[in-house]
Structure formats: structure tokens, C-alpha cells
Amino acid sequence: MNTTPSGAAREIGVGLISVGWMGKLHSRAYQVLPSVYPELGLKPRLVHAADTAEDRAAYARDVLGYEKASTDYRAVLDDPDVEVVSICAPNMLHHEIGIAAAKAGKPFWIEKPVGRGAEETAEVAAAARVAGVVTSIGYNYRHAPAVERARQLVAEGRLGRITNVRATFFSGYASEPKGALSWRFKRELAGHGALGDLMSHVVDLVSYVVAPIREVSALTSTVYTERPILPMGSGTHFAVIEDGEMAQVENDDYTAALVRFHGDAVGTLEASRTIVGPQCGIGFEIYGTDGSLTWNFERMNELRVALDRSGPHQGYTTVLGNGHMGDYASFQPGPGNSMGYDDLKVIEAKKFLAAVAGIEHHNSTIDDAHAVAEVISAAAASAESGAWEPVPDVAGATFGHQARS
Q: Which CATH number fits domain 10-140: 3.40.50.720, 3.40.50.980, 3.30.565.10, 1.10.3300.10?
């Protein structure tokens, strides 16, 4: 990290691997970080971006403002001016690039899932541990101020003993039967479908707010078994193709799981990418002996809380986002002013760079990603076996506050 005179912001050289939608979000997050968090004294410098598509690499340089652009990610990792790396490539490349970044000694912020299963994720985690590099994972929903407040209420015991949890991620991005057969629908490229793509966010949320999951019983189903072919790199999983050549969908559209947490709580988790209605319907309901709360991303700036079992104020109170919730005050002056998805990536960038700089350590880590991957792998095994499957513990995960059994 570059040193600067006292009182001046410290520059951190940033590298980006893959310049798609998520790479653009990471870039914008770095760019606005100094104005949102001036107290950190950090100034990201966009140094080097890489994408296999030459037009995207040029976009990174000419529009996003990176000083250099390449078509090989190794050039980013080899660049001495790059001090941290954002890895936003498709799932099948996360394992290779994550290990390469660790071996290059570069702290990295990587999108989920880190691997196509627990084994790949564990290998990336091991490489990061050996290298001693700071890591951060793209579990952006956990950074919503209402989610941070929910976690605080659970930790303080305001809900009493947590008894049961319901959580979902219902998304309609694949609800169109003629939606393109992108890489997300191919097992070799994506790994699991809704189970890996969407349920991983659900698992992270409930683990972060409540407690780690210790046992799971799951099922999966594929709603549309064929889709029209989309050439690699020519569009997104939102593309619709009329009268295209059809090919097999290789992973799941829907998944559901019964779970047992460490401690006494139990729960139900669901995820779907083909549902009609919800668009980004990730949320949870948490019930305790003294109260409950509920949150959904589609109403991200609201938390519904019930803390009166039998008095005059029974039922839910809707609490608007405010300065007592997470990082809300860094973005908005008061309740009623909404935050959005992109803001959560700014919070994620802040937590990542603050950890790199040794200021604070509130970032999600590769150990969290490994812990989530173990739950997903156990769920996949359960869907095959029909039996309850245990979830191995992962040391170092930054998950919930409920006592382990």
C-alpha cells in the first residue's frame, strides 16, 4: 500500500478481473468510497483491468477509468502497482483465479460462489490462508442496514431464544421458458443452479444473523429442462431467444431445505430462479420466544419488528432505515431516504479495504464462503440421498451469535 504524508489519503492500487455487470459495480464502489467514508483516509486507484473480450477491456480503460487494460487476468496479478484484486469472473473461473491471486500475494474481493462446490472453495481458502492475504466475499445482502440491525437484536437477546427461521430467495430471472441457456444452467460451468447461485446468499444471511447450520435435509427440481442455446460471452442469463436451438439444462431451478442450526433453532430455506412474481425476493423471518422480525430485500429499507408478546403493542412495527442501523448514516441523513443495491457494494468495498489497511475487520471472509459451500454441498448430497446430512464446521467463519450445541 502506498504511503502518503500525514493527513493525506492512502492510495490502494486496484485490479479488476472481468468487466461485466459485477465488475462495473465493484469499480463504482471503489470510486465513491472516499466520499462516503472520508474518515477511513483511503483512496482506491483503478490501476489495471482484464477481460477476455477486448471491447470490455477497452471499456474498463476508456470509461471506467482504469490506467491499463489487458485480455489476460495474469497481467493484473503480475502488475506491481496492483495491491488488491476484485474477481468478478464467471463461477467456473473463481477457483483458478482465487488460488492464483493468493499465490501472487494479492488480497482479493471475490464474488460468490467461490468454487463450484465445497472442495474447490476449501482449496481457495487454503491458498489464501497459506499466503496470509485478506479476503472478502460478495455476500452483499448481509450489509443492508436492516440486516445488521436484525443481527444486533438477535445478539442482544431481544427476541429471546431463537426457535425457528424461514428464509427465501425467489427470483424470476429464469421464469421465461425461452430464456437463454447461459453458463449458469450448465453444471461444468456453474456447478449447482438455484442451490449454488441463490441459496448460498440465503445460507449466508441466516448464518450471519442467527447461527451456523449444522444439519440439512433438502430437495431440488428443474422446472424447465431445456433452453435455447446462447453463445458464450454474447449475452446474459436475462436474454430471451426466439426459435433457437434447444439444449439440456444441467442443474436445478428450485431448491428447498429443512435445517437445524447450532443451538436450538430450526428452519426452512427456499430458492427459485423460475418463480413468477418476486424479482429479487431474498428475505427472512426470525422467530424467538420473546419476539420476531422480518425483512425482504424488495423493501430493503424497512425492518418489521415485534417485541411485545402480550402488551398493548402486539404485532409488527415497521421501522424505516435510520442512523441506528449498520452503515445507513454514511449514505443518508435520516429515515425515509432509501438506500439501494449499489450502496451495499460500497459497504462491501469499505469493509474489504478497511481490513486490508488494518483499520477494522468486519468483512466477510473466505472462511465464510467455505462454510456456506459446506452447507450447499450437504444440501446437494441430501437431495440425492433423501437423508439428513451433517454440515462440517469451518474454523474462522464470522457467523451468528447463538450458542453452539
A: 3.40.50.720
